[in-house]
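fyi for ur records
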Amino acid sequence: MSRESLILRTFELAERAAAAGDVPVGALVVRDGRIVAEGWNTREAAADPTGHAEINALRGAGLALGGWNLEGADLYVSLEPCTMCAGAIVAARIRRLVFGAWDPKAGAAGSLRDVVRDSRLNHQVEVVGGVLEDRAAAQLRAFFGR
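which gave:
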């Protein structure tokens, strides 16, 4: 599957979040060319402050693959991850992070901060940002009514 097709899938997952009143963010974990887990924002639906799409996808991948270490896996997200999610991405040993829209207000993969590539940490992640960025940003604008 191409980067673009995987990012398009994150947009579909983001719509699930929006339908439940959550900010539309979707994520998926790919390893060895197959999707092993998907997630979307569930903070509102689950009353869970950690219910971000990335966290949900990483948890699902850990269960599907039988461990927390996701070395060799890639994470696709519709929006640049926040600091909490960036920390989880590093902790999970994700190989590559691919996302749609940059988030200059809270992004921690190169916008506001760069947690995932911080050389002081025990793992760094390859980052590919801005994939189908206009479409990703439009989805968020539509949700927020701008």
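The helical segments are 3-19, 43-46, 53-65, 83-91, 133-144. thats all i got for now
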